[in-house]
Amino acid sequence: MPLxxxxxxxxxxxxxxxxxxxxxxxxEIDVRFIATTNKDLQAEVERGAFRRDLxxxxxxxxxxxxxxxxxxxxxxxxxxxxxxxxxxxxxxxVRAIAPAALQALCRYxxxxxxxxxxxxxxxxxxxxxxxxxxxxxxxxxxxxxxRPRVDLSLAFRDAKARVVDEFERAYFAGLLExxxxxxxxxxxxxxxxxxxxxxxxxxxxxxxxxxxxEAAGExxxx
Length: 222
What we know:
Strand order of the largest sheet: 1-2
Distance between the termini: 53 Å
Strand content: under 5%
Shape: elongated
Helix content: 40-55%
Number of strands: 4
Order of helices and strands: HEEHHHEHHEHHH
Oligomer: single chain
Largest sheet: 2 strands, antiparallel
Structural class: mainly alpha
Radius of gyration: 24 Å
């Protein structure tokens, strides 16, 4: 939040009044502020990026939410919740996570926190086989807290392009597997039109001759 906006927020909290743009009449408010951050605000105060008076005004009842790696007991419940959400969105029959896969999730250190767990479960649901259990999650984890592998010998633009290409190829390959090669279904899931999808499949060598008439959405006809 820019310092100028911080100043305005502090005034609202202290005065409990706001004035709409274009109006000269203040309106009283009765609200409770709940502020969240993933930064060290005290450090931000020291370097002048966050107002000290606003920091102390907000820090009436601070609550620290530990990162996921510090509360592995939450992982099974969160994983099941994300599984049910993803299965519903993807219209998949996946309902459970195998014990070995769940153990792998609990061992992992989750550098990307809860959002990374959600993404891992969604990928696993998309590529799950016809049974109703996720048996493999290891291939979706970047390692025990390691950063994704990046070729540091390349210039930034080239290294970024390589990572994006690897992600896109894995993403579309997974969707093709999940939807048994039905391109209209893949396109709908990815939020793309048939032409753009076909270009991606061609780029990554994922197209087959039988796909030629399907890119425009003919695979679900009848």
